[in-house]
Amino acid sequence: MSRAWNNAQAVEPATGTPGGVPSGRRVALAAAAVLALGAGATGCAAKKPVAPKVVAIETPTMSDGVQVFHVTGLADLRFDVGTLQAAPGRIRVDFTVADGSASHNFVIPKIPAARTDIVGAGTTRSVTFTVTEPGDYPVICTLHPNMSATLHVG
Prior knowledge:
By secondary structure, the protein is α/β, with parallel strands linked by helices. The chain is built from one helix and ten strands, in the order ββαββββββββ. It is globular and about 35 Å long. It starts with a strand and ends with a strand.
């Protein structure tokens, strides 16, 4: 079977259609391809991860007279809490870095004892310290300086 070129398209001599595919079948194939692409795009959108919600203010639980906070460093370079609301006294922070996150640390520069080492993803470190003066104490990750929170002692 030989093909003749007509306007830069292969024309099948037996059917007279480009590429030898009947026009009705081309339409059906095109429609199937569009539907498959649409279904794939919908599936991708449904799997989009949702960023954890940041708690505005967290109050501690108590354990043997110590105020305990649970703080997580997130993959999007945030702490999962904006403000830790404490009273003067002993405070413990259990700091966890979320799975899949970069490493972080928890540091309160104005309180030298309030710092963790660098913590890797999926790991928790605790730090216990005492605060006697009311006030607001900035909390940072020294690896990501825009990652911040506040310890409010009142």
